[in-house]
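Need tokens for this chain, all 74 residues.
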Amino acid sequence: MTELAAPDRAVAPPILNESFTGYYRGHAKRTLGETGTVRAAQREGALAGVALLEQLESEVGCVSCIFVGNAHRR
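Here are the structure tokens for all 74 residues:
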């Protein structure tokens, strides 16, 4: 997994669009732009999935959203 800085997050929307519809898609797009930590998983050089992570306290965080491309689901 690698971290996606804000300028690099433009690679994520195609997978996000495969994963969500309606309200959830809009929420995920907003969260992608606002979240401090975004991690990407790659498989064979292609983006497979993305995790949006939120820091709640100094030692406490949560996973806000995870989305995985159709080609990488079982």
